[in-house]
Amino acid sequence: MNFRIKNRKPLELSLTPMIDVVFLLLIFFMVTTTFSKESMIKIQLPQAEGVARTQEQQIVLTIDQAGQYFLEGKALGNKDSTELAKDLDEISNKKVPLLINADARAPIQSAISVLDIASKKGFKNITFATQKD
What we know:
By secondary structure, this protein is α/β, with parallel strands linked by helices. The chain has a domain at 59-128: 2-Layer Sandwich (Nucleotidyltransferase, domain 5), CATH 3.30.420.270. It contains 3 helices and 5 strands, in the order αβββαβαβ. The protein has helices at 16-32, 81-90, 108-120; strands spanning 59-63, 69-71, 74-75, 98-102, 126-128. It has a 5-stranded mixed beta sheet, covered by helices on one side. β2 and β3 form a beta hairpin. α2 (81-90) packs parallel to α3 (108-120). The longest helix has 17 residues, at 16-32. It starts with 15 loop residues before the first helix and ends in a 5-residue tail after the last strand.
C-alpha cells in the first residue's frame, strides 16, 4: 500500500470567462440603448393635437423667442435670413426632413421666412414641432 501524502495543488479560479461575459453585457447595453436628443436652447413649443412622429435622421432648426435662428444647435450670426439661406444651401441631402422648433412666442414672420427659404432650397419634407396640452 502506498500511504504517501500527495501534495495537492491549490485550486485556481479563472476570472477570464466572467470578465468576457461582463464585457459582452456592457457592449449589448451600449448598443441597444437609445439616447434622446435634448436641446440646450430653451423654447416653449406651441400646442397642437395630433400623432407624434419620430424621425431617426432629421435636420433641426430652432427659432427662439427673439427670432434668432439655430441650425442643429449652432446659433446663426444674425436674424437676417441670408445666413439661414446660405446654411440651408450647404446641406447636400434635401430629402432629410427639416424639423422647425419655433417658440410659441417667436414672431410668426421668422417661421414663415424659414418655411419659404427651405422650400426654395429644395426641402420637400418640412414639419413643425409642437407639444400636447
